[in-house]
Amino acid sequence: MLTKKQWEFCLEKFAEMFPDAHCELVHENPFELTVATLLSAQCTDVLVNRVTAELFQKYKTPEDYLAVDIEELQDDIRSIGLYRNKSKNIQALSQLLIDKFNGEVPANRDVLMTLPGVGRKTANVVVSNAFGIPALAVDTHVERVAKRLGMNRWKDSPLAVEEKIMRWTPLDNWTNTHHQIIFFGRYHCKARNPGCEVCPLLSICREGKKRMKAREV
């Protein structure tokens, strides 16, 4: 397993490779980010941004999403996976924001997680990017990188990955680290064909060493 000292080395390399890593979901306010992150489940940010470019012109407030039939909203996001369920959650979420929070997205992770369609990952993304509250969302990229490096065991849950990374990473770096690991996983340590042969972490990476050894056989 990876040591804390080795993880600190990883953090340095992530920062060197992706100093400008950021949230790639295009948004202008907490509500748009909440909707975009909800839409991004099992879907790429590129596709979400393509859809929200028009969606966010049409719908500005929770009231706007409730002013149309569910079928119309479904049509607006039809190219996104699970669009029926996501449409239902967006309308239910909008209603709850109006009923309980005066139409505003709450700046509290646990409260956010009470909203329809908002899980821990989405809530962490929103509080960290929209409100500047330190948080570390674990998506498929973060989970893959942590487990390949040997930071976590393969059977660990996303929550276990989140807790371990937070424990070993300075609190004020949580948000930046989250984005840097995502960029590392999205553009370098990809699910298929990761760039092990040119990776600065190869010497300490459990998965990378195994893959390189397999190539030699």
Number of helices: 12
Largest sheet: none
Helix content: 55-70%
Number of β-strand runs: 0
**Helix-strand makeup class:** mainly alpha
Which geometry do the CA atoms define? elongated
Approximately how much beta-strand content do the residues carry? under 5%
- The termini sit apart by 24 Å
Mean pLDDT, all residues: 96
Radius of gyration: 19 Å
Compressed to H and E, one letter per element, the order equals HHHHHHHHHHHH
Which parts are unreliable, with pLDDT below 50 for 5 consecutive residues or more?
Answer: none
Structure description:
The protein has helices at 4-17, 30-39, 45-58, 62-66, 70-76, 83-101, 109-112, 120-131, 140-149, 158-168, 174-187, 206-216. The mean pLDDT is 96. With 217 residues, it is mainly α. 60% of the residues lie in helices and 0% in strands. The protein starts with a helix and ends with a helix. Helix 9 crosses helix 11 (174-187). The chain is elongated, with a radius of gyration of 19 Å.
List keywords for this structure.
single chain; 217 residues; mainly alpha; 12 helices; elongated
Please outline what is shown here.
The chain is mainly α. It has 12 helices and no strands.
List the SSEs and their pairings.
Blueprint: H1 4-17, H2 30-39, H3 45-58, H4 62-66, H5 70-76, H6 83-101, H7 109-112, H8 120-131, H9 140-149, H10 158-168, H11 174-187, H12 206-216
